[in-house]
TrEMBL record:
InterPro entries named among the record's database cross-references: IS1016-like_transposase, Tnp_ISXO2-like
Organism: Aggregatibacter actinomycetemcomitans (Actinobacillus actinomycetemcomitans)
Domain ISXO2-like transposase per the UniProt entry, residue ranges: 1-84
Cited SMART domains: DDE_Tnp_IS1595
Transmembrane segments: none
Top-rank lineage group of the source organism: Bacteria
UniProt name for this protein: Transposase
Amino acid sequence: MPIIREQVKPDSIYTDTYPGYDVLDVSEFSHFRINHSTHFIENHSHINGIENFWSQAKRHLRKFNGITKAHFELYLKEYEWRFNYSEIKSQVSILKLLIKGYLI
């Protein structure tokens, strides 16, 4: 729980109904559960986007055969960038700007 208290905004925890998340119900956080079998999207709250990201990120990171904790954030950030700029043209354009020194 300490890392959650340090890193997570109090009203930003959305999960599915997996019992492993029950510990969040006894914390000071507002914990919102999304039941996929009854509500697909309710009040614009759904977790499909993050589930999609994590599914693809795990598949991408698996090919490295283990990543140390010290470097995990860098690998994840690199994949986040690739996920957000999935078109090769976007990636090339941004890399060219970085090389020219415009995005430092």
